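Worked Example 4.2. Read the sequence first, then its structure tokens.
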Amino acid sequence: MLKVIIWLFLTTLSCGGAVVYALHQQYQEQSAEFRILYRDITVKLAQNDVILALLSNSSDPAVVQQKFPYILRWQTKPHEPPRPDINPARAGTYWINSPQGSLLIDLPALLADFVHPQKFHHFSLSWKDVPLLMQGGDGKDDWWRWEKQIASPSQPLNLAVTHHPDWRSLPWLALLFVGVFWAVVIYFYNQYQVTKRQRNIADLRAHYSELARLNAMGEMAAGMVHELNQPLTAILSYSQTAQRLIKQQQAEKAQPLLDASVIQTKRISALLLEFREKLHSDEQVLQAVSLSKVWERVVMLLGNEIERGKINVINQIPESLPSLIASPLGIEQIFHNLLNNAIQAQRQTAKPWVAVNARLTANSMVLSVTDGGPGLSEQALQQVFMPFYTTRQDGLGLGMALTETLVQRLNGSIRAENSAAGGACFTLTFPRAQQEA
């Protein structure tokens, strides 16, 4: 909606400016036409003064009428009593009076070359508010008006013209392109902002992915200590028993115990190697991963938290589900973050539970992790995958951002929503091309 308002504002502003400019151009053109008309009429009326001075009683009326058809009558004697300089007669005619004599002028005939082809909507010549010649409409509703008195001592007539804009000549096609132009600008600016935002998010994820991994590994460390404690306890027990047997001169019985200690030591080495690989930042080789086994391992790693929170963990991953070609560590991190978040969200829930489900569709494998917690707020649904967004006081807000990154590395997608029961539900979708039959 905001983009539409901005587009309307910019388009209106630009089109308004273009229309004002076009109208100004029309006004300037009409002003130039008025100046030309004023000059021509002034020159034409000035001829009457010259004619009045040259006429005499002996002048041939036929010759005068032939040369000056707009002169209807004349006399070379002044009127008694004297008349005004201009004396209107019938419509369109007036007397020019001077000490040399008088002329009866037919104004329409005099200005025929200017009045009929004139480009104004309204044209009028008047003397002391008495109209002598009027052409066109009344001009009351016209936008523009030009008015000026003719610079003639004997004929100071008032010239007035009006006109209105020619809306048909406005640059309508250009105005249309203005709207299209701003729409394109806003679209590409929006795309730039989206790309910039995605790039910033990607930079944040890349910058803090190591920190997020260490945060996740820190939580996994408790489970690793638990796994190491068992073989270390066994090694200690085997070694102490072997020492007693050797002191008792029963060395042959100590040999199996020492062999068992070696086996347990190798197991510790394998566990430490696996843990070091989890902390390694390089790309890992993709391989067939059993989602059910990885989930069971994550449940074991978070066993203390599950037992402490009395969480009922429901595994609904079918045994017949094909393996997923992925990084075992990546899948483990995804499950670990989702399960840990579900545990943390149900600290105040009376009967907490977490269920994992997997199914196949025509083109993908769909996994869902649902909990019995209070669900996600509207803000959390929109920002749950944003770096540093967290609803926990002790959280860093990097777990779900890293989870989304790991899912996308496998060409998959993840969606957060609330289930019908009210708890949070995270749905992961992976293409079937990454599945192993």
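Now turn to a second chain, presented in exactly the same format:
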Amino acid sequence: MKKHSKDQIEATANSIMQHFIPKDAAEQKLSFHFTIPPSSNYKVSYEKDAKGNWNFVAYEIDEGN
């Protein structure tokens, strides 16, 4: 499995993050899983700052089952 850089993972996550923003405006954290083809799976986490912006805070490789 190809390993991607943090920058690649963050850029990909940022490009699709809008689809995962919680409907509840009070939520302060979000996370979601995605795949960079052909088979690199990641879980990313975001936290909302005081201004209401979502900031990338972490990622992990999702090995699956």
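Notes for the reader: The longest helix spans residues 6-16. The chain has a mean pLDDT of 94.
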